[in-house]
Design goal:
This protein is an alpha/beta fold. Strands 1, 2, 3, 4, 5, 6, 7 and 8 form an eight-stranded mixed sheet that branches. Helix 1 links the parallel strand 1 and strand 2. The longest helix has 27 residues. The radius of gyration is 18 Å and the shape is globular. It starts with a strand and ends with a strand.
């Protein structure tokens, strides 16, 4: 089985619609794919309706969190999307995205970048607007060469010159809410230092003690040494180890199935999730 547990669609900051994403996942030879858009489940219905034969969809989301001033992401799988506490927090994050993005556009203009909110909103479409949409507009303007190049201290990385914060969950609260909604929690790309500051490794141990289920180890932003270190940490802490592409369509260079999750780990995630179930065509 080929299992990719971290992908994004146009419901957040990917470039594939949910229907295109599942079709592309099948064409890429995947057996299981998780749709984990940022702070939203808006794409799940379309993805399920378009599921090709032989492909299983894991409903999920990637929750925006912050700990001691450091941004991090928590993957949530198989939770009840209607559970009120978690639904309310997702809504708070989404509601804060537009004023936050407008604030970053204003700061970029002050820095001499001729970016407009109208173009950023057009790029985002019906999706949950975020920094990748701003970065895409910067690429169009020739300010940076790639989307990743915008995520630096010079531009819109955490604490960058044009960075503006938004409502984000405490990760310990995120783990509690995911569990309360019957879901499974996995810390996304925890040591992706190229993205900016990361929480200390001690925080992973504290989150494990608080009920964290797993860590995303095999990811394009972890080099080989980092992956091995994370595997050792996961083994010591009793955490599940996942691998995935973090696919965003054409917005990033990663490919569907670039990294995958072991079938036994997927089976354990499916067994632990009680708020929703994997869906097969």
């Amino acid at each position: 089985m080929r299992i990719d547990l971290h992908t994004h669609s146009t419901a957040s900051d990917g470039t594939d619609t949910p229907a295109e994403l599942v079709r592309n996942a099948s064409a890429a030879g995947l057996d299981v794919v998780a749709l984990t858009d940022h702070d939203t489940v808006a794409g799940h219905g379309e993805a399920i309706a378009a599921l090709p034969a032989g492909l299983t969809l894991v409903p999920g989301a990637e929750l925006s969190c912050r700990l001691d001033g450091v941004s991090l992401h928590m993957l949530a799988y198989l939770f009840d999307p209607d559970e009120p506490e978690l639904a309310r927090e997702r809504e708070l994050v989404r509601d804060d995205r537009v004023p936050r993005a407008k604030g970053m556009v204003a700061r970029l203009r002050e820095l001499g970048v001729p970016i407009t909110w109208e173009r950023v909103a057009e790029i985002a479409g019906d999706g949950s607007v975020g920094r990748p949409h701003i970065a895409s507009a910067m690429v169009e303007l020739g300010v940076v060469e790639t989307v990743s190049d915008a995520f630096t201290a010079e531009w819109i990385a955490d604490d960058g010159r044009a960075y503006v914060g938004k409502h984000e969950l405490d990760p310990f609260e995120a783990v509690r809410l995911i569990k309360g909604a019957g879901g499974v929690s996995v810390f996304a790309h925890p040591l992706a230092v190229k993205r900016g500051r990361c929480v200390p490794e001690s925080a992973v141990a504290e989150l494990a003690a608080a009920g964290l289920d797993g860590v995303e180890v095999d990811h394009m932003d972890h080099d080989a040494a980092t992956r091995e270190r994370l595997r050792g940490m996961a083994r010591d802490l009793g955490l599940l180890v996942t691998g995935s592409s973090d696919y965003h369509g054409s917005r990033k260079t990663c490919r569907l199935g670039e990294y995958t999750t072991d079938p036994d780990v997927y089976a354990e995630i499916a067994a632990r999730g009680s708020g929703a179930a994997p869906v097969s065509a």
